[in-house]
Amino acid sequence: GEAEAAFQTTDRPERSAEAAYETVPFNRVRKIISDNMVHSLQSTAQLTLNSSFDATQLLDYRKKLKATEDAQMVSISINDMILFAVSKALQEEPTLNSHIVDDELRIFKQVNLGFACDTDKGLMVPTIEASNKKTLMEVSAEAKELVKDCQSGKIDPSKLQGATFTVTNLGSLQIESFTPIINPPQSAILGVGSIEYKIKKEEKEYRYYPAMSLSMTIDHRGIDGAPGARFMKHLIKQLEQFELLLAK
User: Fold this and answer.
1) 87 lies in a domain?
2) What percent of the chain shows pLDDT beyond 70?
3) What is the 3-state secondary structure (H, E, C) of 66-98?
């Protein structure tokens, strides 16, 4: 009948000129990413918590850095500041700095912070070891070196292992929020979104402020919503009072 004919027409894309396509076989990196993502979603109980923070002080401090004559200070990015703050916040709520292995939660004293890096070959996640013991300048310098090595293909494979927590930032690509996928055996991953201006009331006045979104996925097998929320609360406080964090 007519309905059957319509179904057959739409079910045969080869009849359309638009059916032409290019085959791009998965390279080694893409195959690893594919396997890891499927394994993550099939083997963990993922829950995403969403929030945002007032990025005014973060942006103001970035302006101060750009006004200096120190090349290394000028190069410190918003993402570097977030990596630094995450490392400190994990010390306030250490259960998030953990792996889930064989029905047990392994909580680490040292923060080995992974961060997502986009390359021509695909996503890589290099690790800043002992990031909780490093200064903002040290975190920034090491992150840039790791990104350079990832993008050039010269990254030491050992630098792509051992992370206890991961940060992925899509804010520069104008993504407001997203659901990051955990990298097992890690128990959590933080996603950072773009800045959107919002309005809030302060005493008797309203003001617009730059709000940066945060989306953290936790593995609910080992991490409950409350500790995840407490971590986000610690992190937001440190990001909103960034210069105070640096003074500690």
Assistant:
1) yes
2) 93
3) HCCCCHHHHCCCHHHHHHHHHHHHHHHCHHHCE
Given 39, 99, 220, 234, which residue is catalytic? 220
99 noted as active-site residue: no
Q: What is the dihedral of CA 93, 95, 96, 101, to 10 degrees?
A: 170
Percent of the chain exceeding pLDDT 90 equals: 85
In a domain, 8, yes or no: no
What range defines the domain where residue 109 resides? 32-243
Q: What is the mean pLDDT of residues 223-239?
A: 98
Q: Give 150's contacts (C-beta < 8 A, 6+ positions apart).
A: 117, 119, 124, 126
**What is the structure's pLDDT at 19?**
77
* Tally of domains in the chain: 1
Quick check: is 24 in a domain? Answer: no
Domain of 208, CATH number, reads 3.30.559.10
Q: Is residue 17 part of a domain?
A: no
pLDDT tens column, 140-178: 999 999 999 999 999 999 999 999 999 999 999 999 999
